[in-house]
């Protein structure tokens, strides 16, 4: 006869505990007088958590809804700042928003500042790229064109410009073709213009190109002075062609980024202005070079006389010009001295001219202007004065 053991109260409690959850077992181990109170405290945080949870966790609506767009500068171009920032910013400093969240809205002032910075950087980058890749300045893009003129006329133009320059900008416009620039020492400025009547044909839009003046001068020596030559420049190849029906040179254009901007001739208030024969002017420069290194221009309003003189350590030379010798347009008392290092090269450009217009003021630059080829070519030089040191 088998006797079944009756489980003790402790064993029965252990078996029932196996079927209970951990929380129930925990409550079962606590004396009954504390269970009700503890049970209420444990349930209360659960209710509290339910009420607090929405406040601590952002609602999905906040993530999915678009944020307010900051006010942008109306002058800013769309998408300009993004491209610049991708290229220029340090990736370590970038803040990349998560894929499923929108970036935090910026204040209006911050957004405008960012937009302006992006626009400015990008515009500068575009200008640099355009200048280096296309070889033109930021004002006049390179456009293909072609002009024809007598070789001797273009030769005089190039000779005048190579007096103080080895390269320069050719500016094409409705007024013809111009080149103007100061020399490297900034003592002398040259401005020369081929007027519309200098050309047999002119089919060039407004543009600028950079050319090697020395190479052009050498090439022109190959052609007969009386032949008609054609200058053409191509925006695709960035080359200039120079030639006639039988012979043609192709030269690479010089990037305008390496050349000075076209110089604007200052409008000085000259107090002395006169027109002298080319022969007399060249004679005085040659005579002055025999005794010294400068040429002095002295005007006397009372006597209506202009004297050109030079003085060396032991020798001197001078010559006075009145109304019978030169055409005096304007005169007042003024004395200025100019270096022969600049006047002598100018003298060599006066081929085919009958007269020269000279203008100056005391201790101001002197202007030497003349026309060639029946007025088809106009050239002027400005030379800064030499200020004598007080002894």
Briefly say what this structure is.
It contains 10 helices and 18 strands.
Briefly note the CATH topology name of the domain at 145-258: DNA Polymerase III, Chain A, domain 2
Task: Give the overall shape.
Answer: flat
CATH secondary-structure class of the domain at 145-258: Alpha Beta
Query: How confident is the prediction overall: mean pLDDT?
Result: 77
Percentage of residues assigned to helices: 25-40%
CATH architecture level-2 label of the domain at 145-258: Roll
Kindly report how far apart the N and C termini lie: 149 Å
List the helices and strands and how they pair.
Blueprint: H1 9-18, H2 22-28, H3 32-56, H4 60-64, H5 80-88, H6 108-134, E1 145-150, H7 151-161, E2 167-173, E3 176-182, E4 188-194, E5 201-203, E6 207-212, H8 213-220, E7 228-234, E8 239-243, E9 248-252, E10 272-277, H9 278-291, E11 294-300, E12 305-311, E13 316-321, E14 327-330, E15 334-339, H10 340-348, E16 355-360, E17 366-372, E18 377-383
Antiparallel strand pairs: 1-5, 1-7, 2-3, 2-6, 3-4, 4-18, 7-8, 8-9, 10-14, 10-16, 11-12, 11-15, 12-13, 16-17, 17-18
Helix pairs in contact: 5-6, 7-8, 9-10
